[in-house]
Write a structure and sequence with these properties.
33% strand, 1 helix, mainly beta, six-stranded mixed β-sheet, single chain
Length: 296
């Protein structure tokens, strides 16, 4: 679903969602498994000679393809839809203008690469200012410091309007440094386009500790305040809230603000890696620090 809100940056063509996702073809329920491949819009080639257990595999799988029009500005709605891989996205020989993060319009800034944590969404605009006969690689690379990819690189092809669509690009990637911090781009780069001043004294505050555990069966669990989420499909939480049925089970991890107009969440990540957090459909302001914070 694409929701078109007020535009904070001009562009000509909307190319829609671009899904970046690690791919696991074996049982990935256990902790610290390797990903087999990396995909852009569900496609990427793979070296089938590395498959030794008889799983079906086809060499020379196709790449996702995108069309650029010279002189036009193209919007790409990037989504890291993977399970664990932090993605580094780029388009060879083209700079990008970042215009939104997680559906929040921001003050535009230019960059050659965009880092996306799992679940993160970033909208960019790319100016098609190269040769109309050209073909260029679109890339997304999984961090090899923060993750365990067997094939970290995903490729897609961008064809200008007069390019030979039967030929693959020969372009080179932008150089970048994986800083090993396992997080997204610095928050200082992402200033909201429409600012909201938060209440300095919110009516309620919740402290949440995020951690990861390997349970007795060897499976990874993410827990909030030492409680893993266990949903009940017969009792969807939004429906219960709308019906004012407030009999919530502890494993549903419900935080009840009551009638509070503003709420502060103090989220401390005790796990060994960065973890993206999003509060859906509610405006909020976030701050980030590398040390434990008690809210003072």
């Amino acid at each position: 679903m694409i929701i078109h809100g007020p535009a904070n940056y001009d562009y000509d063509l909307d190319l829609g969602p671009v899904f970046l996702s690690d791919f696991e073809s074996t049982d990935q329920t256990k902790w610290r498994q390797y990903s087999d491949n990396n995909l852009i819009n569900g496609k990427m080639s793979f070296n089938c000679s590395s498959v030794a257990d008889g799983r079906p595999c086809e060499n020379n799988a196709s790449y996702a393809k995108f069309n650029f029009h010279k002189g036009k500005a193209h919007r790409l709605r990037l989504i890291n839809a993977g399970a664990a891989g932090q993605q580094v996205f780029s388009v060879d020989e083209h700079e990008m203008t970042v215009i939104a993060n997680d559906f929040v319009p921001i003050r535009p800034y230019k960059t050659k690469t965009v880092f996306l944590g799992v679940g993160q969404r970033t909208d960019v605009v790319v100016e098609a200012n190269k040769d109309a006969n050209g073909a260029y690689w679109m890339r997304s690379n999984i961090s090899t410091i923060c993750n365990l990819p067997l094939q970290p690189q995903a490729l897609a092809v961008i064809y200008y309007e007069r390019a030979n669509n039967s030929e693959q690009p020969t372009t080179q990637l932008w150089p970048y440094t994986d800083n090993g911090k396992c997080n997204n781009d610095d928050l200082t780069l992402t200033t909201p386009f429409y600012t909201i001043t938060p209440d300095p004294s919110p009516a309620k505050a919740f402290e949440v500790v995020v951690d990861q555990y390997v349970n007795a069966t060897g499976h990874l669990e993410w827990r909030l305040n030492k409680q893993a989420f266990r949903g009940n499909y017969n009792k969807p939480l939004l429906l219960l809230a709308q019906q004012k049925d407030e009999k919530y089970e502890p494993e549903w991890n419900v935080f009840e603000p009551g009638n509070s107009k503003t709420v502060r969440f103090i989220i401390n990540n005790n796990s060994s890696i960065s973890h993206v957090g999003v509060i859906s459909s509610i405006p909020y302001k976030s701050r980030e620090r590398t040390s434990y914070w008690s809210g003072d």
